[in-house]
Fold this sequence. Notes:
Elements: H1 2-31, E1 41-46, H2 52-61, H3 68-77, E2 87-92, H4 97-105
Antiparallel strand pairs: 1-2
Amino acid sequence: MAGKSNIRSYLLLIFLIVIGVGGYWVYTNFFKTSVKLNKDYEFIYIQSAFDMNDVIYELKDKNILKETDKFEWMAKKMELDQNIHPGKYRIINGMTHRQIINLIKYNKQEK
Length: 111
């Protein structure tokens, strides 16, 4: 009887560790600040002929993105490549990858 109790305890501990690691991964990829600028904001300009690589290059060129692989993965999952809208976008210091993607995907550009 005590053997089953120990096995359940170990399984519960392993399950909690997996949940904790998964939660940390979600936090770092979706909610953690990923933009650290030397000023309050930076503008990017997306032209009508831009594709996903051009958008990533523009963000990297302005020193907005540090981790392009995470941004690219998330942008593909959120289908940004099918919803790139040309315009002028304000990237604010402290934004997350998700917030940048939503700006471009939902065409929330500056007037």
